[in-house]
Specification:
By secondary structure, this protein is of the alpha/beta class. The chain contains 13 helices and 15 strands. Helix content is 39%, strand content 16%. The protein has a seven-stranded parallel beta sheet, sandwiched between helices. A six-stranded parallel beta sheet has the order 12-11-10-13-14-15, sandwiched between helices. It has a two-stranded antiparallel sheet with strand order 4-5. The longest helix has 24 residues, at 152-175. The chain is globular, with a radius of gyration of 22 Å. The two termini are 17 Å apart.
């Protein structure tokens, strides 16, 4: 049995958010061909038992990125832009030593900001490394790393940092095999001579497939938004949807409702939800199933970000149609009008939603979405794509 190592941020159990789901998909695939060790920076207090899935665990001690200008300049001159993590301590040194000793057959690094450790990896071991980008922070999601500012100096510093971060990404993709979760993301960073691959985000849940959700067409005019409610793209998109679209929607349809369900709602989310009639905020729900049962359709009003929205795939298994902004469905191979409905403004939303009042069309759209999730975004698809990469090493 060969040893494999995964380096990530949050310890991926409980498997309750998209990043943990993707990490655990890798773990399941790797555990079929060898023992899996894990190095992580954070752990949830909810973890009670991981059933020994990892043969060894390392906790990586992360330095805080400096806030003063001089130290940030020092980091930048070393080629370490924000938010690239710098690790320190005995366990980090032990991991580097093990990689360079040839102990690991494969090393998978989740997220580009955990790759600074690769500077210490010897050339002969670089082909064993895979970098899973997942979420490209140099694209539109970059701005979510900072609070708003009117300072031209701060804005200029952020621009310079973004340029350095782009260059850092490009350097990593030239030197190491890099994995993206969609062809759209890969196209942004694929360079001549680089080894880039795609392993799709997936959602496989037998319980959701077997669950009887009832027929959503009978649920009046109830919309559902699901997501982590402290994540800036979710907060911004939800606020935009409520202020520009829900106001018209609720004035048009009697009994209109918007169910907002997710973890750790920010004060901004609590405030916006409390200001409008018919909006119900359900924080940290034990189960999402009752809310899917109550909904007619799912809304994904995301305006910025990268990666793929696993919540769209989850919604697909519930036989509920999805209305999304194009960015919300970024990276998913879905056909407008056949699998999903896209909108970018209130007029488009109202027009697309009206189509769902036709029961036959409602059934067609929701059935197509469920079938494509089962067929194309299954664990088999993930494993096949990942194993093909491993065979190229």
């Amino acid at each position: 049995m060969h040893n494999r190592l995964i380096i990530c941020n949050m310890y991926p159990l409980p498997e309750n958010i998209g990043s943990s789901m993707r990490t655990m998909n890798y773990v399941r695939a790797l555990s079929t061909i060898g023992q899996v060790e894990i190095a992580y920076t954070n752990i949830s207090e909810q973890v009670n038992n991981d059933e020994g899935i990892f043969s060894k665990k390392y906790h990586l001690d992360k330095e805080e990125y400096p806030t003063d200008t001089l130290r940030r300049l020092y980091y930048a001159l070393r080629g370490i832009p924000y938010p690239i993590n710098i690790f320190k301590g005995k366990e980090k040194s032990q991991i580097v030593e093990l990689i360079n000793s040839g102990y690991y057959e494969n090393v998978l690094i989740r997220y580009m900001h955990n790759t600074i450790i690769l500077r210490e990896v010897e050339e002969k071991h670089r082909r064993k490394v895979l970098v899973d980008v997942d979420d490209i922070v140099t694209a539109s999601v970059y701005e979510t790393l900072f609070y708003e500012t009117t300072s031209y100096i701060k804005a200029y510093k952020r621009l310079l940092n973004k340029i350095l971060l782009n260059k850092y990404y490009e350097k990593i993709t030239r030197r190491f095999r890099t994995v993206f979760c969609s062809e759209s993301d890969r196209a942004l960073y694929a360079r001549k001579g680089s080894s880039t691959f795609v392993v799709p985000n997936i959602y496989e849940n037998d319980e959701m497939v077997k669950q009887r959700f009832g027929h959503g067409h009978n649920n009046g005019h109830v919309l559902l938004f699901v997501g982590v409610l402290s994540y800036h793209p979710n907060v911004r998109g939800l606020k935009w949807f409520i202020e520009t679209i829900y106001k018209r929607y609720s004035a048009t349809y009697n009994g209109a409702k918007l169910l907002v369900v997710g973890r750790a709602p920010s004060d901004e989310v609590k405030n916006i939800c409390s200001r409008y009639a018919g909006i119900e905020l359900h924080a940290d729900a034990d189960s999402i199933i009752p809310y899917y049962e109550a909904a007619k359709a799912i809304v994904v009003p995301i305006l910025q970000g990268g990666g793929t929205r696993i919540k769209i795939l989850e919604a697909g298994l519930t036989n509920r149609p999805v209305l999304s902004t194009p960015m919300g469905a970024y990276g998913l191979d879905l056909e407008e009008g056949k699998d999903i409905l896209f909108f970018e403004n209130v007029e488009e939303f109202m027009t697309k939603y009206k189509k769902l009042l036709n029961r036959e069309y409602y059934n067609m759209l929701s059935d197509n979405m469920k079938n494509i999730v089962i067929r194309k975004y299954s664990r088999k698809s993930f494993d096949n794509a990942f194993y093909r990469i491993l065979r190229t090493s």
